[in-house]
Amino acid sequence: MKNLKYLFLALGLCCFVACKNSPKAEEAVVNEAAKSEVSNLAGDLNFSVPQGSSKINWVGTKVGGQHSGTIDVSKGMVSLRDGKVVGGKFAINMNTLTCTDLEGDSKANLEGHLKSEDFFDVEKHPRNMFTITKVTELINNPSGSHMVYGNLEIKGVAKEVGFIAKIDVSDNLVKVSAPNFSINRTDFGIKYGSASFFDDLKDKAISDQVVLSINLIAQPG
Fold it and tell me: What's the predicted TM-score (pTM) here?
């Protein structure tokens, strides 16, 4: 009985540590991929995303720790109608995946592992895509001005993902910023280190939830 008590205590501590290291994030709405996507030319005015201007921030957690980094949006288009975002399509350059909390060999090793077949298999899937399917306005929501839905394709698997974002539109600039939201990597077939699929991982388990945030800028042309 005493050993059982210690076992429950240890399991509880592991759960506490894992949760403590997870950044606060709203879980994204995830559905099967929408059959009809909004065309990136759906509006009457199109803004392009300059290369290097927009990034996706990521955080992955494991028992006792976490790592963070960025991925570049290599190109894209935002479509406007009557001054409102109605569509868009964006390419995510997986070769730019980088870890920002490590240095030297540790940084290179983690980046190499994330780009390998265990995770994003960048050699076969160098570019992931996000295509807007719907944008709805939010009223009096402190987290953002809109709900953005779109088909997110990772490693050839597409799911419709919905998240809250703040969208600012002016004559010469569209800014889209999405605060922390999480997606389940196993929805896209990335199962390495997942306790949902593999037993006896213990302190080597990696959370299924990946936290993302987005900062995107688009300009006329």
Answer: 0.86
| CATH no. for 2-220 | 2.40.128.110
Closest CA to 159 of 55, 72, 37: 37
What pLDDT does residue 111 have?
A: 98
E-strand stretches of 110-194: 127-137, 146-154, 157-169, 174-184
In the chain the beta strands, taken as DSSP E runs, fall at 26-27, 29-32, 45-48, 55-62, 65-81, 84-99, 127-137, 146-154, 157-169, 174-184, 206-220
**CB neighbour list of residue 89: distance below 8 Å, 6 or more residues apart:** 40, 76, 77, 129, 130, 131, 132
- Per-residue pLDDT band for 184 (boundaries 50, 70, 90) equals very high
